[in-house]
Amino acid sequence: MELKERFLKYVSFDTQSDENSSTFPSTEKQWVLLRYLKEEMTQMGLADVTIDQYGYVMGTLPASPGFEEKPAIGFISHVDTSPDMSGKNINPKIIENYDGKDICLNENLWMKTEDFPELAKLAGHTIIHTDGTTLLGADDKAGVAEIMTAVEWLLNHPEVKHGPIKIGFTPDEEIGRGVDFFDVKKFGAQFAYTMDGGFEGELEYENFNAASAKIHIQGRNIHPGSAKNKMINALQAGMDLHQLLPVEQRPEFTAHYEGFFHLIGFGGTVEEADMHYIIRDHDRKLFEQKKSLIKAAVELINKKYGREIITLELKDQYYNMREQVEPHPELIDKAIEAMKTAGVKPLIQPIRGGTDGSRLSYMGLPCPNLFTGGANFHGKFEYVSYTTMERAVQVIIELAKLWGK
């Protein structure tokens, strides 16, 4: 199947995950694409194709004869799309030979270069974008399509020699559960790459250290006419807490290696309220300092009110993969060489987020992240450069060759 046809087929599946679900995968609809991939891999001729009780799909492209002892390399992508916006009834639009100018998504909505200046760099590319009513699903169905297309090419070109290649597709990455039950030993790769990046050339082996801070505030609601010295306004206490955190360490004021506190949820009443932060920093020491700061802020508010009105649930989510990847410089060196051979300029930068690869790296599978060609993920302005997708396929093929030498 041709890459474009495959990608458009995959995005036609609604695979939105649900962070409020207690099942794994979190939504039944993810199973539909996962089972489809399992069947496609089987029909393609891959070996050891399985789908387990958690929805993980795995398969093997056997080594070329005589290359069985080469390192087994894996390629991994996730099938779910973000809960942030609907992934149902996606209506992709295709622009051939894009002119680098504003893109009309629908009669009421344009994607403008003044808002997204990187679009101008894609002049001449084929662009696939949304119709402005859903997300596209390039995160990460572009990665899934690229892996499958590269593997199919290798199957059809046995003259290209390579070692064992492992393929894995996961659910629920968008809600942070993507590898909760991933069996690294069963997968059987020594090293792997997640195909889950964005712009052409991205090669990422540094990501945030991440924590979640869930805060519950127990107030005391008294009629405002007789509230003096009695009322404890949970909403006000929450605002007081938020003001104790440094303004300059909010996401809208940070970039590159700078970490942040991000308030992603705040709601309730005078009587009771809840807040939810995510805490991020590339530097482990600064990460720990941020956690200490939010603990101190909670303690200070409790002291102000003379009682424990605020409780904090602080939980680490994942860590910077750099310390797990750096002992294996060949992972990065080969990725750089593969990109250059494919005519791609490597762009090494930190991930201002996380991937399945960050957790897999701490599970014993060092796993940098490679570009897929997508941008503006999780919303109606999402698009992908199909031209870049084709180059990503070539990078996978070149990596297969390099690891087989």
UniProtKB/TrEMBL annotation:
Which residues take part in binding Zn(2+) 1?
A: H78, D139, D196
Question: What catalytic activity does the UniProt entry give for this protein?
Answer: Release of the N-terminal residue from a tripeptide
Compartment(s) where it occurs, according to its Swiss-Prot or TrEMBL record: Cytoplasm
Q: Which GO terms describe its molecular function?
A: metallopeptidase activity; tripeptide aminopeptidase activity; zinc ion binding
Give the first-level EC class, as a single word: hydrolase
Name the cofactor(s): Zn(2+)
Q: Which residues form the active site?
A: D80, E173 (proton acceptor)
Q: Name one GO biological process term.
A: peptide catabolic process
Q: How many and how are cofactors bound here?
A: Binds 2 Zn(2+) ions per subunit.
PROSITE patterns named among the record's database cross-references: ARGE_DAPE_CPG2_1, ARGE_DAPE_CPG2_2
Give UniProt keywords alphabetically: Aminopeptidase, Cytoplasm, Hydrolase, Metal-binding, Metalloprotease, Protease, Zinc
* Entry GO CC: cytosol
Q: What does this protein do?
A: Cleaves the N-terminal amino acid of tripeptides.
PANTHER family from the entry?
PEPTIDASE T
Q: What is this protein called?
A: Peptidase T
Write the gene name. pepT
